[in-house]
Amino acid sequence: MLYWLLKFVLLGPLLRLWCRPTIEGADNVPPDGGAILASNHLAVADSFFLPLLVRRRIVFLAKREYFTQPGFVGWLKREFFYGMGQVPVDRGSGSAARAALDTANRLLSEQRLVGIYPEGTRSPDGRLFKGKTGVARMALETEVPVIPVVMIGTDRVNPIGSRMWRPSKVRIRIGEPLNFSRYYGMANDRFILRSMTDEIMYALMELSGAEYVDMYAAKAKEDAARAARPPARMPGTRAS
pTM for this one? Predict the structure, then answer.
């Protein structure tokens, strides 16, 4: 109930007025049945604008940390994220990642529309980074189509590190469903999983026109943070 209230009454009208979002290819989303929406990830705002413009309800897998803050503010956040259709998952270890996949598979078996960001985290600079193979495994284990989705402009609405959103045009492009039925039964073949994931990322690159980087976004963030740190002083030296 809260999902539809947020979409049509409490939040949706404000976002439409504030950012004038548009969508291309909405008919590529099937009207029913399980399917995966695989999207690039520019900002937290992605998970607000995509459900706003897609007719069907979307379920996203979200970091467990969004749901664990104590106190009244934490309760408000939990209720809000649940209302936005987000499901908490722990992705901190191999067993946790498997549990997250099992959660997604259960939702897809219930004929739900599941949103996922194959890059695993937000792009640090707007480029498109290497995808993780979980999306491919999910598609093979549930035998559902993968629909490529591109978000454009959400990083200007909600830049990384910003507290306040800014008015800016948002566009969404949805490509034709990718059919991987030729690979059904091969969910344990890591070469197949990588090939499928690369095909999904190529479709996102074609839709977005973004530069592709053959590196995980998390690694790019780590490298940038390491480069930004001041060099360590040698023992016995003084700061200038």
Answer: 0.88
